[in-house]
Design goal:
The chain has 13 helices and 17 strands. By secondary structure, it is α+β, with helices and mostly antiparallel strands. It binds one RNA strand of 91 nucleotides through helix 3 and helix 4.
RNA sequence: GGAGAGGUGGCAGAGUGGUUGAAUGCGGCGGUCUUGAAAACCGUUGUCCGUGUAAUGCGGACCGGGGGUUCGAAUCCCUCCCUCUCCGCCA
């Protein structure tokens, strides 16, 4: 949610920001409603002040035994007027809130202006020593490898649940578990995060808090009977840990890391892109979430990206870091880096991580604040999150990059103590 | 699933229609005392909105959410949500 005061004071800035984000210009509508809202509040408050003043006199008059019936009649009228004004006010506020809820965050000034993914900017790439984009044998894709080695079974996953629900088997299952444990441990030991293991079904308030609702409602599973949503990302429960709280300045930056499965309907996205692991309804992800002071959030974003990169460097998987342009930014994000790992079979970079600064956008929705020690004032925190990382896409790159000409998989050294084996096949 | 209890300020916990934003205790902050600390004592202690910025200014709202009764609601009524206890079932 954008700050109404900011919109009021910087309408043209907001207007341009919305255009840059390929979003409808609702600034005038917002300003009009805001104006109306404030007029109604003033009128209503004035009458309420009158009523309060008179009300406080009534017990005294009664004690004196004076007749209060004419006052009652008059105040009845005032009360009706107040009710009418408040009714109008509620309508205006509901409308305003609805518009603001559908209005995306604005991009940070350091974000390149652009229309689509084509305008994204590659910031850097990292290639392990001795790596070559050209293999001297014919590479197999992760689906073929998974099938041959009997570690991934997409067909039976489909039988159990439907397409997009992968079944890991044998060393594939162990490798998946090893990756999760390795990543968690790495962030705990090297990056100073606190581990959390949150609920993976959340209520509507939590979904609103991080901005998945209303914009992405169609992309979410929903358990109607209990009003609960299977989470699309751990960002939701972890960010909501501090919903409706006032944090202490000395506790910031708070850094959480947690593993959860993630569930996405991915409605309407079938076809080539959805083969195997490329797009699934259920996948595993280790997620990092930060709560920072506003002045720290962009430094924290840089270190967040580095934290995710460290995992890939430890695993020696080639990747590149992409800075998303304004048009490709997600609804809630002010700035976002994607990390893409190399798939030799697809000959493509695959998004394996997304690290975003939401500034106060989520904090305003979820009402997450902190108190400044010096001024004692409360302010919204900035929230950030990044995948560190999603295992499905990572698995594609890992299997394909570490395959041998014989179709075996070498396990990266960093994982040995987690897998208990060094090769599959 | 059945039966019951309850949701009040950072926490605990009073308050059943009228100067109640709300007693009291704890915690927090400031001060006195002290070489320092503790104890004791004194003072202070929420959030949001509007308005204004000479101000620790003025006004309004907030006692789980929503609605109602009333001149007036934390207090009465309706409704929804949540939490807890006991029983049942169960990983």
């Amino acid at each position: 949610m954008l700050d109404i005061k900011f919109i009021r004071e910087n309408p043209e800035l907001v207007r341009q920001g919305l255009i840059n984000k390929n979003s409808a210009d609702v600034v005038d509508e917002i300003l009009q409603l805001d104006e109306k809202r404030r007029t109604l509040i003033s009128k209503s408050d004035e009458l309420k002040a009158l009523r309060n003043k008179v009300s406080s006199q009534i017990p005294i008059l009664k004690k004196k035994g004076e007749d209060t019936s004419s006052i009652f009649a008059e105040m009845k009228k005032v009360g009706d007027e107040i009710a009418e004004l408040d009714k109008q006010l509620k309508e205006v506020e509901d409308k305003l809130e609805e518009i603001l809820r559908w209005t995306p965050n604005l991009a940070h000034s350091s974000v390149p202006v652009g229309k689509s993914a084509e305008d994204n900017v590659e910031v850097r790439r990292w290639i392990p020593e001795g790596f070559s984009f050209e293999f001297d044998f014919e590479v197999k894709d992760h689906i073929e490898l998974g099938k041959k080695l009997d570690i991934l079974d997409f067909e039976r996953g489909t039988k159990i649940s439907g397409s997009g629900f992968p079944l890991y088997k044998g060393k594939g299952a162990t490798l998946e578990r090893a990756l999760i444990n390795f990543m968690l441990d790495y962030h705990l030991q090297h990056h100073g995060y606190k581990e959390v293991f949150p609920p993976i079904l959340v209520n509507r308030e939590s979904m609103k808090g991080t901005g998945q609702i209303p914009k992405l409602e169609e992309d979410m599973y929903f358990i109607e009977k209990d009003g609960l949503y299977p989470i699309p990302t751990a960002e939701v429960p972890i960010t909501n840990i501090h919903r409706d709280e006032i944090l202490q300045e000395k506790d910031l930056t708070i850094k959480y890391v947690g593993y959860t499965p993630c569930f996405r309907r991915e409605a309407g996205s079938y076809g080539k892109e959805s083969k195997g692991f490329l797009r699934v309804h259920q996948f595993n992800k280790v997620e990092m979430v930060k709560f920072t002071k506003p002045e720290d959030s962009y430094d924290e974003l840089e270190s967040l990206v580095k934290d995710a990169e460290d995992i890939l460097q430890a695993l020696k998987i080639p990747y590149r870091v992409i800075l998303l342009c304004t048009g490709d930014l997600s609804f809630s994000a002010a700035k976002c880096y994607d990390i893409e790992t190399w798939s030799p079979a697809e000959k493509k970079w695959l998004e394996a991580s997304s690290c975003s600064n939401f500034e106060a956008f989520q904090a305003r929705r979820a009402n997450i604040r902190f108190r400044r020690e010096e001024t004692k004032k409360v302010e919204y925190v900035h929230t950030l999150n990044g995948s560190g990382l999603a295992t499905s896409r990572l698995m594609v790159s890992l299997l394909e990059n570490y395959q041998t000409p014989e179709g075996k998989i070498i396990i990266p050294k960093a994982l040995h103590k987690y897998t208990g084996f060094e090769i599959i096949g």
